[in-house]
Amino acid sequence: MVNYKLILEYDGTDFSGFQIQPGQRTVQGELQAALNRLFPDGFYLTAAGRTDAGVHAAGQVVTVRTEKSYAPEILKRALNANLPGDIVIKEAREVPLDFHARFSACRRTYLYRVMTAPTALQRRFVWQISFLPDFDRLLECAEIVKRQNDFKSFTKAGAETEHFKCEIYESHWEKGENEWVYHITANRFLHNMVRILVGTMMEVGRGRFSAAAFEKMFNAGDRRAAGLTAPARGLILWRVDYEF
Amino acid sequence: MVNYKLILEYDGTDFSGFQIQPGQRTVQGELQAALNRLFPDGFYLTAAGRTDAGVHAAGQVVTVRTEKSYAPEILKRALNANLPGDIVIKEAREVPLDFHARFSACRRTYLYRVMTAPTALQRRFVWQISFLPDFDRLLECAEIVKRQNDFKSFTKAGAETEHFKCEIYESHWEKGENEWVYHITANRFLHNMVRILVGTMMEVGRGRFSAAAFEKMFNAGDRRAAGLTAPARGLILWRVDYEF
């Protein structure tokens, strides 16, 4: 028995999300097809996070447990040779059998990119907005997010989860030329959480709500209290950290 | 009569080049379709450079002469609203009538990006190579390019041009993490010139030719003396400078 940890980069534009679905082009579907050729006797795959349709990854983590063993560098090359161009294995290494891509993860980091100028080259990876948000208000919102621990208002209504608690380790905006990047690190994320946070912060940034109103939304525990869901294309699973 | 200077950004991946061709999706074709809606009585369009199929632009320059006049900011917005997502007008301004996108240009800058690690996110914009070139040899080649003024060996055989002289103002490689970017600025470029230069330099970088052999290729005046043509996807028309 061998357990491999793979770090994946993918351009989510042309996928119906990570998770395998019949009749759809998914990251997991493509990855399993490539793994099938190398491990015809079977394997067991888990991912750190199931990204939605259109969401990208620079550091998705997948573990693959199998009987057959390859040198990690060989496995990486063989997978890259069999994967389509929009999925790449950046790293492959052997890890202990009890290492689990999902349950061993202690921190996940997402970035969300917003551009205030139209862009052709970056269009697959950013939310293009036509207004100029107030950066100080965005910074204030990011600080508010840091102080929260219940995100029930910021997840898809009817989400299947045992609880809505998330520990936020990092939450800040970085400003570039015509570009604004939101960084958030937490122990876990709820479905659509980053996209609803960003969509709502942008509404504060353009003056539709105050930062104080944003803070109150967390108390409501109701999706309807929060604002818009930002588009998937701006979101990227940046990295996943593990205890060991 | 009004003359507009437009700065264009485009992702060349899904275009059969800049120049209009019947039955093909081209940048010029899309741009003319958008201009037709704004200038139904006609316009006269010229571009600084005709990029090939798959080549990108961050700073292509186009001039549009027309009878009808719009405020440049309005023109820019109206064009962006009518253009597909892979072409964007970054700037529009009115210029004197004798300003000509092609003939008034005095310097053009191209970048060529090479990556030595597989990439999903950058795949549309880089040449992915599977070997590690010798960076010092690339630097040496870039210096050699700077000293040349005849590029007949580095253009498509049978190219229609009056002469093969180019004045090189800048030629250097920049090294990032897993990424190598070649910058070249000249008064003019021959067809395929940057791609043949980069393809040949990469052959020097991997040890197939020496830098001295590279230097000799310029004397041959024959395409067969030079090396490979690097793929279009890594090339981007970065900027065009004008005297006025």
Q: What fraction of residues of chain A sit in β-strands?
A: 25-35%
What is the total tally of β strands of chain A?
9
**CATH architecture field of the largest domain in chain A:** 2-Layer Sandwich
Q: How large is the radius of gyration of chain A?
A: 19 Å
- CATH topology-level name of the largest domain in chain A: Alpha-Beta Plaits
What is the helix content of chain A?
Answer: 10-25%
Greatest interface and its residue counts? A-B, 19 and 19 residues
Oligomer: homodimer
Biggest β-sheet description of chain A: 9 strands, mixed
Give the overall pLDDT of chain A as a whole number: 95
Describe this protein's structure.
The structure is a homodimer of 244-residue chains. Chain A is α+β, with helices and mostly antiparallel strands. Chain A folds into two domains: 2-94, Alpha-Beta Plaits (2-Layer Sandwich), CATH 3.30.70; 106-242, 2-Layer Sandwich (Alpha-Beta Plaits). Chain A contains five helices and nine strands; from the N terminus they run βαββαβββαββααβ. In chain A, strands 1, 2, 3, 4, 5, 6, 7, 8 and 9 form a nine-stranded mixed sheet that branches. In chain A, helix 1 (27-38) crosses helix 2 (72-82) and helix 3 packs antiparallel against helix 4. The first copy, chain A, is globular. Chains A and B meet through strand 4 of A and strand 4 of B.
